[in-house]
Prior knowledge:
This protein is of the alpha/beta class. Helix content is 51%, strand content 11%.
Amino acid sequence: MNPEGNLAQDTLKEVAKEVAVCTRCALHHSRKLAVPGEGPADAAIMFIGEGPGFHENEQGRPFVGAAGKFLEELLASISMKRSQVYIGNVVKCRPPSNRDPLPEELLACSGYLERQIQAINPRVIVTLGRYSMAHFLPNAKISDVHGQSMNVKGRLVIPMYHPAAALHQQSLKSTIQQDFLRLPELIAKSASLPEQVEAATQEKKDAKQLSLF
Ligand code: URA
Ligand code: SF4
């Protein structure tokens, strides 16, 4: 792997080490295992969900329960495997009884997600559910923007409904299935936007430069 790839790998490992013992928010009380996320450090696509549920908390891995199985089916529908993409969450520790994460918890955890994004530098970010969407598009309404791609700081951000919500509501299920089928086209579009990737690389350089001071 090239030096930049190793650097990305190191950052992901460092974030995983930190979240395992993090006490920045109250969610550490309900944590058995933190779920930093998983996937290739040079993934072109990142999927970002909400937070660990019961099974994720037990195993320390994202999307391993029913929602995960559905996510794998959605990926299979566009001939993709989960091993090809990076999968993470906006909060790394399980909210008690799977309640929604609170604003202060999202804020406390957001720095870890940002470091992961900077390291991986994906061209495309697919957000799963409204808390993940809100990290990138704070004023968007998921019912308006699901399945559409938006340029956020040089990356394509594509909001989707959360697979767990879609599992329990047939209308959302067909919507997310249709939105996924459009992903390959949107991903292809992102490949023809080199200046945006350059902008992201510049951001990375700036960050590196900043860390020198
Ligand atoms: N739901 C999420 O949002 N994230 C997971 O990791 C699992 C289920
Ligand atoms: Fe730390 Fe995030 Fe876990 Fe809160 S959810 S304790 S900020 S790692």
